[in-house]
Structures are given as C-alpha cells and as structure tokens.
Design a protein that fits this description.
single chain; alpha+beta
Amino acid sequence: MNRDAGFQVHSEARGPHWVAWITHQGETSPYRSVLLVGPSKEEAEERARKWGEAEAQIVNSSPSS
C-alpha cells in the first residue's frame, strides 16, 4: 500500500494477474468501485497511481460551490 495524490494504493494477486485500487485515507472500499488490472504488481499499482493523480487534479480544479 502506497500513498499518492491524497489516495492510498492497494494491490493483490488475483489468478494470473494483479489488481490495484485506490482509497481515501481510512476507507477500505475501492474509490468509485474501480479495480485496475495489470500483468504485474508494479504495472497494476502504476495504473492506480496515475488514475488517482488524474482524479485528484479533477477534484482540485473543480470550481468551489
């Protein structure tokens, strides 16, 4: 589990591949129920990190209500 862009990155092996997901700190469910699949732990976690960074930019660039 790694922290990145305000999210925590989690991963686990599932069959012949790895899945990774992001959560907000203190939560256990995947953010927006999204799992990212990769052939290796590193690739799955990298996909999750990139997606988390993109989500953080969207949230941070949204106008405040």
